[in-house]
Amino acid sequence: MRQPLRYPWLNFDVDDVLAPAIAVRVDVTETKAEVSQHWHRKGQLVFALGGGVTCRVPSGLWMVPPHCGVWVPSTMEHSNIATANARLFFVYIEPGATELPDRCCTLWISPLLRELIIELSECAPDDVRCAFLGSVLLAELPDMPVQQLHLPISSEPRLRRIAEALAQDPADRSTLAQWANRLALSESSLARLVVKETGLSFGRWRQQLHLIVAIRELASGASVQRVSGDLGYGSVTAFITMFKKALGKPPAQYLGSIARNGGSAFVA
Question: 3-147: what fold?
Answer without folding.
Answer: Jelly Rolls (2.60.120)
